[in-house]
Design goal:
This protein is of the alpha+beta class. Strand 10 and strand 11 form a beta hairpin. The protein is globular and about 75 Å long.
């Protein structure tokens, strides 16, 4: 045991007992007390029971002598299997990004990273071998080998956990306690989430069709003309599509593959005449810039000279993954980037070589990070890496190796740089920003993306996005767009993106100005502007809650099953969620409806936008298009950055280094709130006093404190 409530179990087929007792005592039954837990282990036959301090049984094997099984082909150990009791009342949550259901009971869950274009169903880009049973226990398979969880499918009321192994055996973590304790235990074992910079929590825009500097500057002009707050722009179609480190249409002298590009060596023109000037102009408006990347040395029948030189150098130096017999591994023909070479990120020299070619982008051009797309590229068990790992272990590991290398390198040069990834696993939170992958522009995809974001959050990956209203195909309906925009304002990352590349006419971009034009509906623009401004208003609260997630492992988006364990009705509302500890969000996912049944757990709740009070139970609330039902838990205090109106939705611009009007909204029920002042870099506690007044940590009572609810709303005064 490494900490209270955590237990690590190792199964070593050829190992020695490490139980801390005489091995003779292990022959029948051993009883141990570790980490505040009581463990009883029997070996003839095998049995396992884990209990808490009070003697409550948290998890046990089937009781049939098959709780632990060593899987072998007769000569070599191939896997380890645990068979655990799964009483009917238990739900199983986590497993990474899951699109089909939050509760994975009655399903077979494969921990296998795939590149699955739209309609993911049971597949995933981000498999995590971790689940938890609310307020009972969590289990983590500490391995990137293929694992599977059969939950009440192969055997009634049994959860079968199976993982492939090599001769080193396997390690399993068990975490016990309430949901917060389980989440923190898992975060300590798998790695806590890195907190992104404040600017990463503002609205993002992106479109594959933005393939020239003039187009990017036009988008900048649109954000200004329409007073649309924007903190990040992602450029996908910026590079030569050969080396992925040179700007399209730039000229430079081809050099030996070992060279490190410098800004002075390029002559820019054509589509991107002045990349540095463009980035500087975006920065002047408070907008950060990410560039799209892929971890391949691209195969092309007509490869550019520099691409050929780079590939030759990488092959000579052994910087690419290999096949079992030692030949260079190439992606299978017919797959994305088929026949291309794959960089070996387990080789430090290969990593430094590959990333050093992007140094000038960070240091000289001034970009703020990279969109690290793809990574689901290991096909075949015999693929071999520099560090000895093979394909059966690399399949799930490679996406994290790739994105982590980019993140670490970028942070070395730009202290607040970020990466934005599609694929990963149990380490995705340590290169912290990600999105749920390729989605259609349909209501079904909206629902699937919501589930994926919530399940990722419950799997230790708190900073997750989706392409608002989908990115595939033609633009969504005006209704779907507005519903999705409203929800995304209350998600960890708010971003629009579209798939179509080239120069489509009409534009497929999901920007609000294009949506308004394409649909002939100005409400698309007005709804986006309102909720993007709400997003900026919420930044003090949002960043405080994000910081809490990075420190504790608690989700930022908390499903009802997580936030209200033991409340069976709450768990049925899988599209409702808590956003941080105070806000209950109830997105309208059904198109054509203007009312919504909302379930309120125990206590009193207040409408964020209208102040109306609700008691526990199911209430039908109005949700006309352009609105979103959001409610505040009684006793909450919300730090906000508001505009001149003092209301949510007022413009405060893009700034994340100042506040226009720092305001605290307090709700009946008393209490206090420790928030993080990102402008001044300090934590501060705000509390409600016994007389109903409020006080900040410095002892002052001021008009920036507004009591909300029960007629207090927008009083504009302290007390």
């Amino acid at each position: 045991s490494s900490r209270e409530g955590t237990l690590r179990l190792t199964v070593e087929p050829d190992g020695e007992s490490r139980g801390g007792q005489d091995s003779s005592a292990m022959q029948e039954t051993a009883k141990l007390s570790l980490g505040g837990l009581s463990i009883a282990v029997g070996t003839q036959p095998y049995s396992f029971t884990l209990s808490d301090k009070a003697g409550k049984v948290l998890v046990r094997d089937t009781g049939k002598g098959d709780g632990l099984q060593i899987l072998t082909d007769g000569e070599t150990v191939r896997g380890i299997r645990l068979n655990l009791q799964a009483p009917e009342e238990q739900g199983f949550y986590g497993f990474g990004m899951k699109y089909d259901s939050l509760n994975q009971r009655n399903k077979d869950v494969d921990i296998y990273c795939v590149n699955w274009y739209t309609d993911q169903a049971g597949e995933t880009y981000t498999p995590v071998p971790y689940y938890f049973v609310p307020n009972t226990y969590g289990l983590y398979v500490d391995s990137t080998y293929y694992s599977r969880f059969a939950i009440d499918t192969e055997r009634k009321n049994v959860c079968t956990v199976e993982t492939a192994v090599r001769d080193t055996g396997a390690a399993f973590y068990l975490f016990c306690g309430d949901n917060a304790a389980i989440a923190e235990g898992y975060a300590c074992a798998a790695g806590k989430a890195v907190l992104p910079p404040v600017w990463a929590f503002g609205p993002w825009i992106s479109a594959n069709e933005w393939n020239r500097q003039s187009e990017v500057m036009e988008q900048l002009e649109q954000t200004t003309a329409h007073d649309i707050p924007t903190s990040v722009i992602v450029l996908e179609a910026w590079s030569d599509e050969e080396t992925f480190y040179t700007w399209n249409d730039s000229q430079f002298e081809a050099a030996d593959g070992g060279f490190v590009p410098e800004l002075e060596g390029f002559t820019f023109g054509g589509r991107w005449p002045d990349p540095k000037g463009m980035v500087d102009a975006l920065h002047d408006e408070g907008i950060r810039v990410l560039l799209w990347q892929i971890p391949v040395l691209k195969f092309s029948g007509n490869a550019a000279p520099q691409s050929k030189l780079d590939q030759r150098y990488a092959l000579e130096q052994g910087y690419v993954l290999k096949n079992g017999e030692g030949s260079p591994y190439r992606l299978p023909s017919g797959t994305w980037f088929g026949n291309s070479l794959l960089v070996d990120f387990t080789n430090p020299q290969a990593t430094d070589w590959f990333l050093s070619k992007r140094r000038y982008l960070l240091e000289d051009i001034g970009v703020d990070g990279f969109k690290t797309d793809g990574g689901e590229f290991i096909w075949g068990r015999d693929v071999t890496a520099f560090d000895g790992r093979r394909g059966d272990e690399l399949r799930n590991a490679y996406p994290d190796l790739y994105a982590q290398a980019y993140f670490d390198y970028s942070r070395m040069l730009v202290p607040d740089a970020v990466t934005f990834s599609r694929a990963g696993g149990a380490s995705m939170q340590t290169h912290p920003l990600c999105w749920v992958g390729d989605q259609r522009s349909t209501q079904r995809a909206f629902e699937e993306a919501l589930r994926a974001a919530l399940s990722a959050s419950m799997s230790g990956i708190p900073f997750v996005a989706w392409d608002i209203a989908g990115f595939s195909g033609d633009v969504p309906t005006a209704e779907l767009y507005q519903r999705a925009v409203a929800q995304a304002a209350f998600s960890p990352v708010m971003q629009v993106h579209s798939e179509t590349s080239g120069d489509p006419n009409p534009s497929q971009a999901r920007t609000p100005w294009n949506m308004a034009e394409r649909k002939g509906d100005s409400a698309c623009l007005d709804t986006y502007r309102f909720f993007a401004n709400v997003r900026m208003n919420l930044l003090p609260y949002l960043y405080t809650e994000a910081r809490h997630s990075s420190r504790t492992g608690e989700p930022l988006m908390r499903s009802m099953a997580y936030a209200f364990p033991g409340d069976e009705t709450a768990a049925e509302y899988e599209f409702q969620y808590m956003f941080g500890g105070s806000l209950l969000v109830a997105p309208a996912v059904e198109m054509g409806e203007e009312t919504l049944d909302v379930y309120f757990p125990e206590g009193t709740w207040y409408g964020l936008f209208d102040g109306k009070a609700y008691t526990a139970g199911i209430h039908t609330v109005d949700c006309p298009l352009g609105t979103l039902p959001v409610f505040v838990k009684s006793g909450s205090i919300l730090p906000l950055n508001l505009g001149e109106s003092g209301k949510l939705g007022g413009s405060v611009g893009n700034a994340t280094d100042s506040y226009q009007n720092l305001t605290f909204w307090a709700y009946p029920g008393g209490g206090e709130y420790s928030w993080y002042d990102y402008v001044n870099g300090k934590e501060e506690t705000v509390k409600v006093l016994a007389d109903g007044k409020m006080q900040r940590a410095n002892g002052t009572e001021s008009a920036d404190i507004v009591l909300q609810g029960n007629g207090w709303r927008n009083s504009g005064q302290a007390g």
